[in-house]
Recover the amino acids of this structure.
């Protein structure tokens, strides 16, 4: 199916690095440390994490399209969560945000079969990374999870000032990796940023769909386990 491919471009968060699991662990730890149970009247962090996750996804979608900037994303994801939980957002302690940013990228939970699959693919292809994440966090995730060695080039949107799905970030990544569009393949979890972004650029893509959500009709290739790449490629 992909016999002509030579260069594989991966997304990081939600594709290789298990963002939800790592974020949830961090938020659970900080919820109690900062006594959010007393503020909310809820001894568990479940509602806080669920509300935060929804807001974080929404705001990252806006960030992808340059509708908000980094400081606004960082501020609103917790302020909006407090508001929705009926807590005065002015009570949010910003040390929480700083500690979250310091701790979360040090977590090392990856999706199943990540190292096994990347090791397999590295022997056959040149691997690259394209991330919309923040530079410092990306670098710490890659280092702490022992992922850096797999990738020949790493393109971070914050560094070049262009986010996926803008086709210019894919063009920049291919140029940096000395790769050809028709011999390249994008693998990512975000239909808008990763898959359709690559398709609009004219590059084939595989949708990583670990939750096995319904796959839209315009998405020809989807997997729910990274190990499937060892069969497809």
């Amino acid at each position: 199916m992909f016999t002509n491919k030579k260069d594989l471009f991966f997304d990081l968060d939600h594709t290789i690095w298990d963002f939800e699991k790592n974020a949830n662990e961090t938020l659970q730890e900080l919820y109690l440390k900062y006594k959010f149970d007393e503020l909310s009247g809820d001894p568990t962090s479940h509602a806080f994490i669920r509300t935060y996750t929804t807001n974080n996804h929404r705001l990252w979608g806006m960030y992808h399209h340059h509708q908000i900037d980094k400081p606004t994303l960082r501020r609103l994801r917790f302020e909006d969560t407090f508001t929705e939980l009926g807590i005065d957002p002015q009570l949010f302690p910003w040390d929480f945000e700083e500690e979250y940013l310091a701790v979360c990228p040090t977590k090392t939970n990856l999706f199943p079969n990540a190292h096994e699959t990347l090791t397999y693919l590295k022997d056959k292809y040149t691997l690259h990374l394209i991330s919309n994440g923040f530079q410092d966090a990306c670098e710490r995730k890659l280092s702490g999870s022992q992922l850096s060695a797999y990738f020949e080039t790493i393109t971070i949107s914050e560094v070049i000032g262009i986010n996926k799905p803008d086709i210019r970030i894919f063009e920049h990544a291919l140029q940096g990796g000395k790769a050809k569009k028709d011999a390249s393949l994008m693998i990512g979890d975000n239909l808008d940023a990763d898959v359709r972004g690559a398709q609009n650029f004219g590059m084939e893509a595989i949708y990583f769909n670990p939750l096995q959500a319904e796959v839209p009709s315009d998405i020809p290739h989807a997997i729910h386990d990274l190990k499937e790449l060892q069969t497809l490629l």
Summary: The chain has a mean pLDDT of 96. Residues 113 and 199 are 26 Å apart (CA to CA). The chain has two domains: 7-17+110-232, 19-106. The chain has eleven helices and six strands.
